[in-house]
Amino acid sequence: MPNSPVATANHEVHDNPALLHHFATEQQQKNAASLGMWIFLATEIMFFGGMFCAYLVYRYKYFGDFGSASQQLNITLGAINTAVLICSSLTVVLAVRAAQLGKRTPLVFWLLATILLGLVFLGIKADEYAEKFEKHHVPGASFHYHELFPGQEKLAPADRQYANPHHAEMYFSLYFAMTGMHALHMIVGVGIFSVVTFLAWRGKFTPRYYTPVEIAGLYWHFVDIVWIYLFPLLYLIDRHR
Amino acid sequence: MSDHNSSSEHISSIGSSVAIWLALLIGTALTVGAAYVDLGPFNIVVALAIASVKATLVVLFFMHVKYTQERLTKLVIAAAVFFFLILLSLSMADYGTRLWT
Prior knowledge:
The structure holds two protein chains of two kinds.
Chain A: H1 26-61, H2 63-70, H3 75-100, H4 104-134, H5 165-201, H6 211-235
Chain B: H1 14-35, H2 42-62, H3 71-95
Helix pairs in contact in B: 1-2
């Protein structure tokens, strides 16, 4: 880090066992960890960004078919899951706050609440996936799609137009790629939070050292932000027709 | 880069955290409501605008970026968003204009 004080061999801060010898101060160590996490999140933005870009290209090209396929999703479950993730972000904030204040019991409680909300999200997502399998809306050999363009049900039966099943299959490919990768991040997040909860329960964190709680929190918030964009893009195409 | 003497970290108050949480929930309700209103080509614009406001709230307040002394963190975030927008804008500048004559 530029501007940081040069580490000296006999700096006096030896009372914090969490301070590694190659950092001059606790603050410098904390800043390095935080910056490293942000650089990882920058790579994650580009990783999800590629899929968002593919989604935008095909949505532009096959807009009507994407609208038709989008309306096969359950908007209520999608909205509930959005709320669940927003609540889990709040519990993360409260967990970091408890760690900063050195309150072990609230810290463990809020971390467990976060894990529980993450599992609720994954459960609802699994239910949505099961419905997709039942309706043969999973891309592959058994894919079957025979649905109207949005708004066509208002027309006389002879005038109704059906969406192109190949284009709908492209929508569901992107749907499963994006929500699947997001769900994988949620599963990893639940794993990370389980480890952090164990460490918190063992009393490893103090107001001077709670970096794992904060870093895990950054990751969780990022996964929340991805869903904040996925929900309107995947669930809310052409709903007004 | 923060001065190592001013190592006091920002601690979010419960009140402000709950306020941001409520704003995010209201934003979710707004985005669902707006999807049922016919805004023509602006449905996607409104949806992405609401999502971006929500994402900004999360980054600034829940991820403590508003309170960080570390300018390098802000540079990393700005660079990531900038390159992501290059990816989107140049791709759509190609695919979005192919039907133009």
